[in-house]
Structure formats: C-alpha cells, structure tokens
Amino acid sequence: MRAFNYCFSTLGCSELNLHETADLAKRHGISSVELRTLCGSVDLISALEGEFGSPSIFAAFLAQRDLKVTALNTSIRLFDSDDMSAVEPFIAWAEAAGIAHLRIFDGGNRLTTGEMTRAGAVLDQWQVDRQSRG
Fold first, then answer.
1. pLDDT at residue 120, as a whole number
2. How far apart are the first and last CA of the chain?
3. Residue 2: what pLDDT?
4. What's the CA gap between 129 and 124, in Å, rounded?
C-alpha cells in the first residue's frame, strides 16, 4: 500500500487522447487523472464524443482500465457567466463515470464585492436547479 495516490493533469500532455493518457498513467503506476485537455483541445466534450461516442462507453473504458478521473475541466469562467447552463453537457459524462468534480474557473481577476455576490447567486441557483432534477 502506498502512502499517496498520485494523479496528474492532462494539461501537461495535452496532445494525448484518453487511451494514450491511460497508457501513460499505467506506465507510471498512476491510477487517477484530471482531464484538462485531450487531443490538443480544452473542448473535452468534443474530444470525448470523438473518442468514445457516449458517456456509457467512456465509463466502461475507465472501469476496464481501472482509471479514475478526479475532475473534468469545463473551461467555464464563473464571473463571465450569468448561469451555469454551460455545465450541462458535462453532467452525463461525469455521472456515468462517477466523476465527482467539474473544474470551473473564477475568471482570474481581483473581484469586487458585487461580483462575489453575483457569483454566489449563480452558484446558489445551480444548487437549486440540481436539486430540482434529483
């Protein structure tokens, strides 16, 4: 048993597809990855659709390869968004594969109190939306 479970981000190997990423992880004894990029793109949904076609096939691949995904990068900037609808395409992929985290960026600037309040309201509404869908 190891003291740590290692993980790496695909940001450092952005040109790889998920099959190649899984091979890299296995070669180094790593069982988890954070998907930030695939196939040279931050558009993960397009890359996953191109490689797997559906969330269920993606989930089966991860199970077969014994690879866990710690987070999916959405490339969404919270402070540039009025709602969280851009997250929707990621939900089926995350749920099928048991991925608990979606990476959302803050926007990269020093924020005013009003911007923080607005972001809080967007996230609060997202929670309400999620609960209403079960």
1. 81
2. 37
3. 58
4. 9
Contact 90, 74 (CB under 8 A): yes
16, 24 Cβ separation under 8 angstroms: yes
**To which H or E segment does residue 55 belong?**
helix 55-65
Query: Do 19 and 26 meet the contact criterion of CB atoms below 8 Å apart?
Result: no
Segment-wise mean pLDDT, segments of 10 residues, the chain, 134 residues: 80 97 96 96 96 98 97 84 81 94 78 80 79 73
Is 69 within 8 Å of 35 (Cβ atoms)?
yes
Q: Determine how β-strand 68-77 pairs with β-strand 102-105.
A: parallel
Find the Cα–Cα–Cα–Cα dihedral 65, 69, 73, 74, rounded to 10°: 90
Tokens linked to 63 = 């199970």
DSSP state for residue 110 in the 8-state scheme: P
Rounded CA-CA distance 18/37 in Å is: 10
Predicted local distance difference test score (pLDDT) of residue 42: 94
For tokens 């992929």, the residue is: 93
pLDDT for 108 equals 66
Closest CA to 69 of 95, 46, 40: 95
CA-closest candidate to residue 34, choices 7, 55, 59: 7
